[in-house]
Write a structure and sequence with these properties.
With about 325 residues, the chain is mostly helical. The chain contains 12 helices and 5 strands. The radius of gyration is 26 Å and the shape is globular.
Length: about 325
């Protein structure tokens, strides 16, 4: 298949990642685009290897789509009122409240009873973990709360529109809140807890009903965010490859060889005016950090070079000139 990189993506790349890049003529525009193409060769590879079909990525994209639809609808609601007015400022929240109040929301009584009991245990355990003389470390507290959630039977707790919230999902969010947490022991407190989880989905559904999902601006934004997620995953894979070397028995030999080549960078000026290159042991922390960055850059460049050899890249220079 073909991987499109819309002009909006290049503009966003320049604005967010290459603020110092000059783009006042075609060669400089091409240079910026080449950098972005290298990034998106990894995106193309992700498509080819089926990453976009993975359950984890599908879940990420569903949440991203909901977020973007909500943002577009909020902007539309705001723009329906005079700029700077109270109505404009409150338009998105007012619309979200109206959609929530009108939505049929089914809360399971059985699941709610389980949530109340588990929430009470979470509160008690959290308080005990912070009680002296020695408080539990955060990871120990988190493990205790996770055990409470896991021990609670899983079930669908809330249904709305064509969506649902599971019991474990709600408890995980509850456990992550700082004390004092929402008063879920009362129906009003429970509704206050789940409302922020439901309204984005309701807003997204309303955006679809208004035709926002078919607008080109929305589609471009969705592609931009999908590609960004794929870029992040590709970068994580490259960093994992570099980290494998940083953790391997080969590290010391590779680092010493690298330092011999770059030692001049770490030279320090002596009081008498001369410059001395410190031993690796003295500059190890800084050298290791620099070496790891260069290692990632090396793997990224090698992978991009290999991917370019197997791809046909077509650039619309007429569109590029409008950058």
């Amino acid at each position: 298949g073909t991987l499109p990189i819309p002009l909006s993506e290049l503009r966003a790349y320049r604005t967010t990642e290459r603020l110092q890049a000059r783009t006042d003529d075609l060669p400089r525009q091409r240079a910026l685009l080449d950098d972005l193409i290298n990034e998106y060769l990894f995106v193309d590879e992700a498509y080819r290897t089926g990453l976009v079909q993975s359950p984890k990525f599908s879940t990420q994209m569903a949440a991203t789509r909901t977020m973007i639809l909500t943002d577009f609808l909020s902007t539309q609601a705001t723009n329906e009122h005079p700029p700077g007015s109270v109505a404009a400022r409150d338009a998105a929240a007012t619309l979200a409240d109206r959609l929530f109040d009108a939505a049929p929301i089914d809360i399971s009584n059985e699941a709610y009873a389980l949530i109340k009991r588990a929430a009470q245990k979470i509160d008690t355990t959290s308080a005990a973990s912070q009680r002296g003389p020695v408080a539990d470390p955060p990871d120990v507290t988190a493990a205790k709360l996770s055990a409470i959630i896991t021990a609670t039977p899983e079930a669908v707790a809330v249904r709305f529109a064509d969506k649902s919230l599971s019991l474990h999902e709600i408890l995980s969010i509850y456990a992550g809140l700082p004390a004092p947490r929402a008063a879920v022991q009362t129906p009003e407190g429970f509704v206050a807890l789940i409302k922020p989880l439901i309204t984005p989905e309701l807003m997204a559904g309303e955006a679809v009903r208004r035709g926002i999902a078919s607008e080109s601006d929305f589609q471009n934004k969705l592609v931009q965010n999908r590609n960004a997620l794929l870029r992040f995953q590709a970068q994580a894979a490259i960093e994992a490859e570099a980290n494998a070397i940083l953790r391997s028995p080969e590290l010391e030999a590779k680092l010493q060889a690298w330092y011999r080549t770059h030692a001049g960078t770490y030279a320090v000026t002596e009081p008498g005016g001369g410059r001395t290159v410190p031993a690796l042991a003295e500059a190890r922390d800084r050298a290791l950090a620099d070496f790891s960055v260069e290692l990632c850059d090396h793997f990224r460049a090698e992978k991009a070079r290999a991917l370019r050899q197997a791809r046909v890249i077509t650039i619309d220079e007429a569109v590029l000139r409008t950058l």
